[in-house]
């Protein structure tokens, strides 16, 4: 979903003058969910059948799909978005929304991707750090988004703490 959001934001900024289909985002997200469910179902069924060789191939394929398609698309679209927003016109743009998306993806890459890398390396019996470290990073990633929303939503010109409801409301209004 982060990949879909990144690409959708990038396309909407780059081609703001072109009218895109109204339900494009929902369709893309539904397709990504379907792909995700299909991949997880196939990996789970192969691994539950205790077919070690096919299970390992399915897991490696899943991680390669993540590393070679989804993560690079997310990074490239966010870099394009970031450059376009910084160098683009100075008309009113919902900058807080872009900051939230950028921070969410940045923290995803820092905190969640190591677990995928660790799992991928495990398929080759290679470990660099203990599982507890990458699991802790993944847990941090799972809980950091509300803090991002709060901090970005509560910062205007001066960062001041306000109610959580108002902070969320500001972020999601844009």
Automatic annotation (TrEMBL):
Q: Which membrane topology describes this protein?
A: Multi-pass membrane protein
Keywords attached to this entry: G-protein coupled receptor, Membrane, Receptor, Transducer, Transmembrane, Transmembrane helix
Question: Boundaries of each G-protein coupled receptors family 1 profile domain copy?
Answer: 1-149
Q: Where are the transmembrane segments?
A: 24-43, 63-85, 97-121, 133-152
Record-linked Gene3D superfamilies:
Rhodopsin 7-helix transmembrane proteins
Source taxon at top rank: Eukaryota
Question: What are the protein's GO molecular function terms?
Answer: G protein-coupled receptor activity
List cellular component terms (GO).
plasma membrane
Q: Where in the cell is it found?
A: Membrane
PANTHER family, per the entry: G-PROTEIN COUPLED RECEPTORS FAMILY 1 PROFILE DOMAIN-CONTAINING PROTEIN-RELATED, MAS-RELATED G-PROTEIN COUPLED RECEPTOR
What name appears for this protein in its UniProt entry?
A: Mas-related G-protein coupled receptor member H
């Amino acid at each position: 979903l982060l990949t879909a959001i990144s690409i959708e934001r990038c396309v909407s900024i780059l081609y703001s003058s072109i009218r895109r289909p109204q339900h494009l985002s929902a369709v893309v997200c539904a397709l990504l969910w379907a792909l995700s469910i299909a991949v997880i179902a196939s990996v789970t069924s192969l691994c539950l059948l205790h077919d070690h060789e096919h299970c390992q191939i399915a897991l490696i394929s899943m991680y390669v799909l993540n590393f070679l398609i989804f993560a690079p698309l997310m990074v490239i679209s966010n870099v394009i978005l970031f450059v376009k927003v910084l160098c683009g016109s100075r008309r009113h743009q919902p900058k807080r929304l872009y900051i939230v998306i950028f921070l969410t993806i940045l923290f995803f890459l820092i905190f969640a991707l190591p677990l995928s890398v660790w799992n991928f390396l495990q398929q080759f019996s290679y470990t660099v750090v203990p599982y507890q470290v990458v699991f802790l990073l993944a847990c941090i990633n799972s809980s950091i988004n509300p803090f991002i929303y709060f901090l970005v939503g509560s910062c205007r010109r001066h960062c001041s703490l306000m109610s959580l409801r108002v902070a969320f409301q500001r972020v999601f209004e844009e």
